[in-house]
Write a structure and sequence with these properties.
By secondary structure, the chain is α+β, with helices and mostly antiparallel strands. The chain has helices at residues 53-62, 64-73, and strands at 13-18, 24-29, 33-40, 45-52. The longest helix has 10 residues, at 53-62.
Length: 86
């Protein structure tokens, strides 16, 4: 699973791990990514989204319908759905 949120676009950040002796090595800060399944009433099916913890909270506030519209506007594609040619 890629560490990338479909809604907020959060992805890993990079930086340095600094030891007690102040030696620096590269490290990766991964976002808290979860796979969550939502019921999409307008299409009569479930959709599985890869969201960060903040993305899940956003869905709880705005609703799944508005979230799906926002993901599609960003150019994201939901699993099992093909883009219309219109």
């Amino acid at each position: 699973m890629s560490a990338h949120c479909q809604l907020t676009g959060r992805s890993p950040g990079f930086g340095n791990a600094i030891s007690h002796s102040h030696r620096r090595t590269r490290r990766r800060f991964d976002p808290n990514i979860q796979r969550k399944r939502y019921w999409l009433p307008s299409e009569g099916r479930h959709v599985r989204l890869t969201l960060s913890a903040k993305g899940i909270k956003t869905v709880d506030v705005t609703g799944i319908e508005a979230t799906v519209v926002r993901i599609r506007a960003r150019g994201g594609q939901l699993p099992g759905v093909r883009k219309s040619s219109c």
